[in-house]
Amino acid sequence: MWFEWALLPQGWAAHVRISSAQGRIVAVETGVPPAATDERHANALPGLPNLHSHAFQRGLAGRTEQRGSQADSFWSWRGLMYRFVERLDPDSFEALTAFAFAEMLEAGYTRVGEFHYLHRDERGQSYTDPAELCARVAAAASDSGIALTLLPVFYAHAGFGGLAPSERQRRFITDPEGFAVVLDGARQALHTLAGAVLGVAPHSLRAVTAAELRAVLELVPDGPVHVHIAEQMQEVTECVAWCGRRPIEWLLAEAQVGERWCLVHATHATAAELAGIARSRAVVGLCPSTEANLGDGIFPAAEFSALAGRYGVGSDSNVRLDAAEELRLLEYSQRLAVRCRNVLAAPGASTGRSLFDAALRGGTQALRGAGVPAGLQVGAPCDLLTLRSLDGVAGRGDELLDGWIFNGGRAAVDSVWCAGVKVVSGGRHYARERLQARYAKALRQLSG
Ligand SMILES: [Zn+2]
């Protein structure tokens, strides 16, 4: 492949030729003419990691926007989501997941961190294969061509202090022994999926006791660890009532939080907690469109950035799938909160470029580990995208990124390659018709 301009780790370069083999970049040449057989495009950007997703929740997008009799909140939305979960079977679960993954690719994401918490059947029984639904996530990733970091979720309680789970949580619940079996099955399911990574996700401090957290971390000694934390003020208040400390404060003191950790949301963080996360080198997983949709609050990203804190973005509930929009909303939430412009850019730098670089670095660390090659360089997965010229998305260099993020959005994504395979052309995923038809059928069944 040959590009007039490409964003490389060292910056923009002209006339770039990228070669790949077995899914990885094997050569990056700059200042060279195209070979006769090269596919040619105006620009190339690294694909963005989507560090936090519950793909099946895509089926709820746009369907929870009617106000109930009382003030709506995250908790009333969660009730609707639990009702939706009751009706999912493995086929409908896979259909929703595969189409969501295809849409992620169309939106500019090339790897997804699937925070996967649905393990049991409608009655709360284990499937014949306890990792049945992990295998379905792997099949959806294979079908869509997206790179997968699978994060099986350990979920055991309804609240702090080991509160017994509710009936509605019966499809999520495991104990450490049962969870070890699910992880073994997940490992097998990923065995044939090129580039797949297995991590672990203690759901939240609400759902996991301290002893369980230790047991679960031992099961995946060196993979990514993701946890929901401090998304809602109610969670913070309950945590303080339980142990006298706030959730992030507790986690930083009680777990060895480091580079393999991703703290998802961390919305309600004090200055001391922000400094602690930054020191730990963990990544904060921000999900601006979902956090806005659920009324979570605004993460103090400007303050965290000033501490050299690491962050990436995720689509979480998948109410919208648009990598550029997550970055735009992240910046706009800060502008609204601190009443300044270009908040997350370094002095004199492009905001689009600053956001993109941070999300690429942070997302890569959260999904593939610290210190692995990221972006368009030899040894990295050949995951990239090209933007088309639209009004407001033109030019080159950082101007192109600003145009994409602040104006063009998803409509400007033209082609996407994952592991060197072209999975999106002209903005459309190669299997869009088939996957969309299966998704629509599953949604009809679920609402019927
Ligand atoms: Zn989540």
What does this 3D model show about the protein?
This protein has 448 residues and is of the alpha/beta class. It contains 14 helices and 17 strands. The protein folds into two domains: 37 residues, no CATH class; 323 residues, Alpha-Beta Barrel (TIM Barrel). The protein has an eight-stranded mixed sheet, with helices on one face. Strands 5, 6, 7, 8 and 9 form a five-stranded parallel sheet that branches. The longest helix has 18 residues. The chain is globular. The model has no long low-confidence stretch (mean pLDDT 95). Zinc ion binds next to loops. The site of zinc ion has 6 residues, from loops.
Provide tags for this entry.
single chain; 448 residues; alpha/beta; TIM Barrel; eight-stranded mixed sheet; five-stranded parallel sheet; 17 strands; 38% helix; binds zinc ion
Task: Quickly describe the structure.
This protein is of the alpha/beta class and 448 residues long. It contains 14 helices and 17 strands.
List the helices and strands and how they pair.
Layout lengths: L1 E7 L2 E11 L2 E6 L10 E7 L1 E6 L20 H13 L3 H17 L2 E8 L15 H13 L2 E8 L21 H15 L6 E2 L2 E2 L7 H10 L5 E5 L3 H11 L3 H8 L6 E5 L5 H10 L2 E4 L1 H6 L7 H6 L3 E4 L9 H16 L12 H18 L15 E4 L10 H11 L4 E6 L2 E5 L2 E2 L2 H16 L1
Parallel strand pairs: 1-4, 5-6, 6-7, 7-8, 7-9, 10-11, 11-12, 12-13
Antiparallel strand pairs: 1-2, 2-3, 4-14, 14-15, 15-16, 16-17
Bound molecules: zinc ion.
